[in-house]
Amino acid sequence: MKGKTALLLAVATWLVFLAGKSLLTNDAVRDRPEHFPTDVIFSAYREGSLGSILLKLYQDQHFEFTWSGTRAVAKGLYAFHSDTLVLTATKGTRIIKGARQMRFVVDNGMLVELPNVTGIKFLGITTDQLHKGQ
After folding, report:
1. Which residue has the higher pLDDT, 28 or 13?
2. 42 touches 50 (CB < 8 A)
């Protein structure tokens, strides 16, 4: 009987460990709720010499900035102030080249980085459900 109890305790401990590890390392739990493609309300994209750059804004005020060449992904919160998009990285992280915050102005179907400190310069807007009818 003691052997069965010890075995059950060991299995239960292992399952609790695995569940806890999964929760602690899951970006969706740590950074934002899980999204479906329909949650993307704004996106901008361009090809670069070292791969593509993709920015996605979600309905819940979170963003993802992805560089295909390095497979790097930056996450954080965004806000629009008039025609200016402000990205702020998740606490303790950076977006690119040490920048904790980036600003873009919406100009004629483009996002133009202001000032151009990261070298991104611009992204072409591919989805815009935020500025419909403006």
Report:
1. 13
2. no
